[in-house]
Amino acid sequence: MIETKDKLFGIVDLNARFELTKFKPVRAVLKSRWMPLLPILINLFMFVIILLAAFTGGLSAGNYNFGIMIVWILWWVLLMMMLVPGFSRAWCMVCPFPIFSDWAQRTRLFDVKPGKLGGLGLKWPKKLSNMWVMNIAFLVTTFFSGFMTVLPIATFILLGIIIIGAFVIGLIFEKRTFCLYLCPVSGFQGLYSQFATVEVRRKDWEICKNHNPKTCYVGNEKGYGCPWNRTPFDFQKNTYCGMCLECLKTCPYDNMAINLRPPGVDLLVDTKREPRGLDEAWKAFIMLGIAIVFYLAFQGPWGFFKDMVRGVTLPGYLGYIAFHTVFNLLIIPGVFFVFAYLSKRLSGNTEVPLKSVFTNFAYTLIPMGLGVWMGFSVGILLPNGSYILRVLSDPFAWGWNLFGTAQIPWTPVLTGIMGYIQGAILIVFFAFAVGYGWLLAKQIYADVKQAKRGFIPILTFLTLITLVFLWLFVG
Amino acid sequence: MKITKPIVIAITLVLTIAFVALVYFGMTRARGAPVAVPPLQRATLVSHYKTQSLDLTQDVALADWADIPGTAVELVYQAMIPPWSKGLIPAVTAKSFHNDTELYVYVTWKDESENRALGVGEFSDAVALMFPLSNDAPPSTLMMGFMGKQGVNVWHWQATQDTEFWSKKSVSADAYSDFLYPFEEQETLTIAKSPLTSAVSDLLAVKVTTTTAKATQNVQGRGVWDKGAWHVVFKRALKATNAKEDAAFAHGARKLMAFAAWSGDKGDRGGRKSISDWVQLEFR
Amino acid sequence: MMKKKIILIAMAALGAACILIALIGIATPATAESPRERFFEVHAKRFEYAPDTIQVNQGDKVTIRLVSEDVSHGLYVDGYEIKTAAHPGAEGTLTFVADKTGRYTFRCTVTCGEFHPYMVGYLNVEPNSRLWIFALLIVGVALCSAVIVLR
Amino acid sequence: MKIKNEPIAVAMLILGTIVAIIGILGFENYRRSAEYTAELTARATEYGNWYPNTITIPYGKPAKILIRNIDVVSHGFALPDFQIAVMEIKAGESAVIEFTPDKKGVFPFVCTIWCSNRHMEMRGQLVVE
Asked: Do C42 and C103 lie in a common domain?
């Protein structure tokens, strides 16, 4: 946990923590090997149904397909609106995809088999041990969003590739390499979980310092060494912690805790081991850009753009891909670069490298991006959420009626006040972005005077981007 | 079992091939059981050039049409807009020719009974031709000419009107109705009519429920019922009198058209009819 | 030093004013221009409406005639919670008084193809007070935070 | 005796995957053959038309036909000779028609909603024998 004297908005104590694991039953549950195995197994069953529905659904209407609806309405929206901002990488905790490679590596599903893990166990190259591969993987995945979110079989193909990829990568590389550096949805979860209100951290450094060997890293008979290759005894950022709960089991001193915390604390962490980086900055740009493009394509009224996204003609589709790529990888970062440059110029500081100003301030886009994605998700969930009730009762469109909700018609909910909800979300997350922007400014520029001046361009950028999204949502 | 390199390669290959095969299988059945879809085959009605012209004031002479090849046009129940047809006329046979100034279309179909009069529960046999007014109209929706704003020109021949016009006989009982009407089971209202100028109503429509009589009636027609079949001849000037209201024809051109037929004794009237798909009319 | 203070005070006042105006804006609905009867013929085809944006003023009596150009489509207006549907050859109509201001999305109600859930258009009921309220709030928050930081 | 968790976990995994898939597909197969006389799939002409294009049901016995619209647009089902119709079956939905055929022969059924440019070709035959 980093010690900071800074207070968010000048009032919120960023060192405040509330330990959830201090309650005995909570700790007992989390230390059981059924946790998270049992939720994973239940989730695995869910995804078997999703895959079956997506496969049998073929090219039929996605809005009546269990696979499409659960993945793109329920899961995606839950991820953006609750799981990531609230519970960090809780999705990774219950994600069923790596269970097969875990099983192959450990040769046990439930028990702990001490000793070396199976599989080839190669190390992932250091140069790629960052978000770049995931940035590209996610961007490429979004090229196909016009198919995946509406064609059941396209969702099947995506999930199939992820499942097989996770398994094969798990056989070749050590531990959760796939989750850490390859999974398309891992990247933004890692990035945005820095904002989460929950964290897994060690409690007392004194205990860890004298504990050898560090069982949280190497494992013992109670559990495996951190599958996510973290050092639970001293990591400070949520980014790459998959919340698999192994360290809670392997720590003989119960020195690992799950804490509630003020949102966004990790944004201020910049250490040698967990530095801020251009990879995460670009992840933030890509997420922001995708939100804009997706809004234009899926919630805007422009038919020609929809035709491009759904690939009516090949030139149109390639045009969309080109625009999408350039917009996300170059234009958004380019615009931000201008403001970062202005920030440096205005601050009068000549020592701080421009790259550092650019990278560090990019972290203000984490709360911003989370906010716009929440707003976007509201626009998907409220009009289309009622489909979920239907597909729960008739998951394969075979005429079933499991829970008596198969006849519920499409019913938009609260769409009249949707604009207010989206506007309110934007303002809240704009405030967080500004709050952390100021704290980051103080980190970047040694001198408070410089920080003040250097902060102004960033504040301007954040205001403008918020106004852009406001215009998109309600304008 | 220790996982070695060859095993990983083998697993990867097997999984990839199995997945690709599964996706391929899924794609072939993505819209249900795969069947070969026959290519679209639109019936073509050829209108040959002839120097002949017909006089409709005389009765329809079947001999005039005997050696012109006919096109069989399949009809189906009109089952899109209620009320739906009650009986089906499965097909009509159409023939056509044109001379320098006139177009002739001949339609024949089997009908066991000749219904030339109207009354309560008694309806007229009829046949209609429909042409889109726009020459480049796409062969999309044919429901009463919903083909963009220009709409369609409909030539509606009715046996009752034929009797009235050619035989100068009154066909109506005191009350009748021949179109969609909310009280159709108790049809008792008389409907005012303008004096007849033809056995064929020359109509305009832009969509369902918009059929409107044109101000100028340009189409003549005459029908004869013979040995269990109707033979109806339509005649119109090749040139359109008013391009906005009349279908335009020209030697060497192509035009979309559609057919509809009514069987009075089965209760057909108004929207209750048998209809065809688009037919290509070709002038040679 | 004096100059800076004056600027800061001015900014704070402006920011506060923005927020205040926004809050007043929420409480009092804008007064409408004289209402008119408005008629729109909206053509629906996969997966767009033409026109895709309908511009009206608060209080207008709006009639939308929905014409489908290919398959069955529908039109549901967010906020007003009314809908109609159209087949090719059979159109739908809906009439309402545009008493709620803001931009509302109208959506297709009949599954018309794979992109059906994304088939939307906008109904703009002027004045779009929602946009201005939130824009003022955002600018106000920005100005106030600038003042807090720079002070 | 200590409960062995490992086999339980493995059993749950197999139950949730392979057994679930086989079970669901098998159950649906049984349900359809037990409940319905015939099954009809609605799709636009371009995508294969009514499938199967000809269905045969026995004369005089109550028939129960499942019609599934697996297309992305609405279709409808009309069997005019028996005055039976389902005006609209929305994409992804299914309808069931029940009737007792009181005449023998071949009867056409058609789609009732303009579903594509080849809508007029979307028809099939019901054979009662």
From this structure: yes
Residues of D in contact with C87 (CB under 8 A): 113-114
Q: Provide ipTM, 2 decimals.
A: 0.88
Same domain, C53 and C117: yes
Q: Is B19 on the interface with A (CB under 8 A)?
A: yes
How buried is C24 (Cβ within 10 angstroms: 0-12 exposed, 13-18 middle, 19+ buried)?
exposed
Q: What is the reported pLDDT for A213?
A: 86
Query: Domain map of chain D by residue range?
Result: 1-35, 37-128
Beta pairing, strands D84-89 & D75-79: antiparallel
CA C10 to chain D, closest CA, distance in angstroms equals 59
CB atoms within 10 A of CB C79: 22
Residues C43 and C110 in one domain: yes
Q: Do C101 and C136 fall within a single domain? A: no
User: Do A44 and D96 lie within an 8 Å CB cutoff?
Assistant: no
Residue C118: its chain A contacts at CB < 8 A?
Answer: 150, 297-299, 306
Tell me yes or no: is domain B42-283 CATH 2.60.40.1190. yes
Q: Which of residues 32-91 of B touch D (CB under 8 A)?
A: 32-35, 37, 40, 76-77, 79-80, 84-86, 88
Q: Which residue of B has its CA nearest to D120?
A: B277
Domain ranges for chain A, please list them.
Answer: 279-475
> pLDDT digit string (tens) for A95-120?
999 999 999 898 888 888 888 888 88
D80 and B37: CB-CB below 8 Å?
no
Segment D83-122, tens digit of pLDDT:
888 988 988 889 999 999 999 999 999 998 888 888 888 9
**B-D C-beta contacts closer than 8 Å:** 63
Q: Are residues C68 and C45 in the same domain?
A: yes
pLDDT at B189 over 50: no
Residues 6+ apart with CB under 8 A from B151: B132, B133, B145, B204, B205, B206, B207, B210
Considering only CB atoms, A398 lies closest to which of D8, D13, D28, namely D28
CATH architecture of the domain with residue range D37-128? Sandwich (2.60)
Write out the two tokens for B193: 């009519």
Q: Which of A87, A367, A36, A83 is nearest to A199 (CA)?
A: A87
Q: Tens digits of per-residue pLDDT, D39-61?
A: 999 999 989 899 899 999 999 99
Mutate to test the interface with B, among A107, A151, A153 (most CBs of B within 10 A): A153
